[in-house]
């Protein structure tokens, strides 16, 4: 049995980074992330739910949403799987945070504060080099000169981190090592180097959780594990069905060309159908667990109307 919580669950992630009483953990992580660039001294958590501005508009629910002493904002999210329009979703999230800074009246001079989107990814981004950290900024295409520092994306691709404990070179890598391996550890490393890891160990110790918090965590871990198992089952099923259908079609239309095209199309169709079934099944499970429909829609990528109708 694990001694420490799984930080990739909704409850686990917010227990580490989303609590006012433990905000020094998030501050330390952000400073490790932005080392050499800037120093965050304090943060204030903001309402994670942004209600729609207009009737029938779409609201937002962030995992963690906060502002620092300079008024700059941080959106911190954990994403366990890539879904349809994932990158567009992150763009929408940051754009909403920027647009909400607008003030009424003619006197406002567009004095925007920077918005950082920090996205932990428990998967590898497609069509991009696989590396731990990908920083996206607005810059000139040819000269790479920064156009504005008011919008920045930082994607942390956890599968690309392969270092062992003694290979970590800085606090950012130490944080990533601890988060990625937390559920398998019997003790948290780096406590002698930095007191924040000693506090982290106390917070993530399952035995130290209250009965109420433990119940919420157990439900969260169940949803997380069911999702992983279902994803793998549907992936294998979709691959097998796609291969069989593609092969049959390929052999009927010409062994060489038909097989290659048929397998590709069949594979894609099988994966797409499998993912659609998976999203619906996960949504039903999360709705049965009492998770808000808006949050379920954001996690699964399903329309809110579909979630509410389950």
């Amino acid at each position: 049995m694990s001694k420490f919580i799984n930080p990739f669950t909704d409850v686990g992630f917010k227990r580490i980074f989303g609590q006012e009483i433990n905000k020094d953990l998030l501050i330390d992580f952000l400073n490790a992330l932005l080392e050499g660039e800037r120093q965050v001294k304090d943060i204030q958590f903001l309402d994670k739910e942004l209600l729609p501005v207009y009737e029938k508009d779409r609201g937002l629910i962030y995992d963690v949403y906060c502002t620092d002493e300079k008024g700059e904002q941080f959106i911190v999210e954990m994403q366990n799987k890539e879904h349809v329009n994932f990158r567009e979703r992150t763009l929408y999230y940051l754009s909403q945070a920027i647009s909400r800074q607008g003030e009424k009246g003619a006197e406002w001079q567009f004095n925007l504060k920077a918005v950082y989107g920090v996205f932990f990814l428990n998967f590898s981004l497609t069509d991009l080099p696989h590396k731990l950290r990908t920083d996206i900024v607005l810059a000139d295409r040819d000269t790479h000169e920064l156009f504005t520092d008011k919008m920045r994306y930082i994607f942390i691709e956890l599968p690309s981190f392969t270092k062992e404990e003694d290979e970590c070179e800085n606090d950012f890598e130490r944080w990533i090592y601890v988060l990625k391996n937390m559920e398998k550890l019997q003790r948290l490393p780096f406590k002698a180097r930095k007191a924040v890891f000693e506090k982290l160990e106390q917070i993530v110790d399952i035995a130290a959780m209250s009965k109420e918090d433990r119940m919420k965590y157990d439900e969260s871990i169940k949803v997380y594990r069911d999702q992983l198992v279902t994803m793998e089952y549907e992936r294998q099923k979709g691959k097998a069905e796609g291969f069989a259908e593609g092969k049959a079609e390929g052999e009927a239309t010409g062994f060489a060309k038909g097989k290659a095209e048929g397998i590709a199309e069949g594979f894609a169709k099988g994966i797409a159908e499998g993912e659609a079934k998976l999203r619906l099944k996960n949504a039903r499970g999360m709705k049965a667990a009492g998770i808000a429909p808006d949050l379920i829609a954001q996690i699964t990528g399903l329309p809110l109307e579909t979630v509410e109708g389950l």
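The longest strand covers residues 146-157. Residues 53-58 have pLDDT under 50 and may be disordered.
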